[in-house]
Design brief:
Elements lengths: L7 E3 L2 E8 L5 H14 L10 H8 L12 E8 L10 E8 L5 E3 L14 E13 L4 E11 L8 H15 L5 E2 L7 H9 L15 H5 L2 H13 L1
Parallel strand pairs: 7-8
Antiparallel strand pairs: 1-5, 2-3, 2-4, 3-6, 6-7
Length: 227
């Protein structure tokens, strides 16, 4: 079968780099989040905009990586990449000699870094805290790889890099969530040594349920002022 128009075929060696994102990556991050929402059947909850992502992920001045919201981008290149000590988190080489890969969205995901790079995935994480351990940790909000590049070891590379950075910083743990129907992901995470905790459930206040608490602080301030 012929490759779709505008697709790109990758063969031989392909270099992967997980790097710190910047504001130039926001259009791709926005598109990747929407693809993730489609995969998880949660597009009804998708409300992110490029403007909101820019203001929340890349404020000025920017805090040091892994001390606040940290976005990491997975770039791929048919040419060798020179690691940048200021932004490269992890890198590796894929050998596609035996199984060339067709990426129908390669042109749409051309990296802003240029040089023939394409963006294939992202991670967003931020620090949390364990009172039981009395140590900070990292929470991985999203780990996502575009469909053509899955099952190539890139998800393992990304999660390993986040875990490695947490360990280097002396943190106590790395946590994330997985949908209970996503058996492939559950098996993958367990294969990396993660405990999947069935006894825990996520509790969430959002939207109108969260907004109704907004007045509580204002009422408390009014009462204190009246005393």
């Amino acid at each position: 079968m012929a490759a779709p128009a505008n697709s790109t075929t990758f063969s031989g060696d392909v270099w992967a780099e997980l790097r710190l994102a910047d504001a130039r990556d926001v259009p791709h991050i926005h598109r990747l989040i929407h693809q993730m929402a489609e995969f998880e059947l949660l597009t009804d909850l998708f409300a992110a905009t490029e403007e909101l992502l820019t203001s929340t992920l890349f404020p000025s001045p920017a805090p040091p990586p892994f001390t606040s919201f940290t976005a990491l981008i997975l770039d791929l290149s048919p040419s060798p990449l020179v690691p940048d000590s200021a932004s490269t988190i992890a890198s590796r080489c894929l050998d596609l000699s035996a199984s060339p890969l067709v990426d129908p969205e390669a042109a749409a995901f051309a990296s802003p870094r240029g040089g023939g790079r394409i963006t294939a995935g992202f991670v967003i994480c931020f620090p949390n805290y364990s009172t039981f351990l009395a140590k900070p940790g990292l929470y991985a909000e999203d780990i996502f790889v575009r469909a053509p590049w899955r099952r190539r070891g890139l998800g393992r590379m990304m999660l390993s890099a986040v875990a490695g950075r947490a360990a280097e910083l002396g943190m106590g743990r790395v946590e994330w969530c997985v949908l209970d129907w996503n058996k492939n992901a559950i098996n993958f995470y367990e294969g990396m040594g993660a405990d999947v905790l069935p006894q825990w459930r996520i509790c969430r206040l959002t939207g109108a349920a969260l907004d109704k608490y907004k007045g509580n602080q204002e009422e408390a301030a009014d009462r204190k002022a009246a005393e």
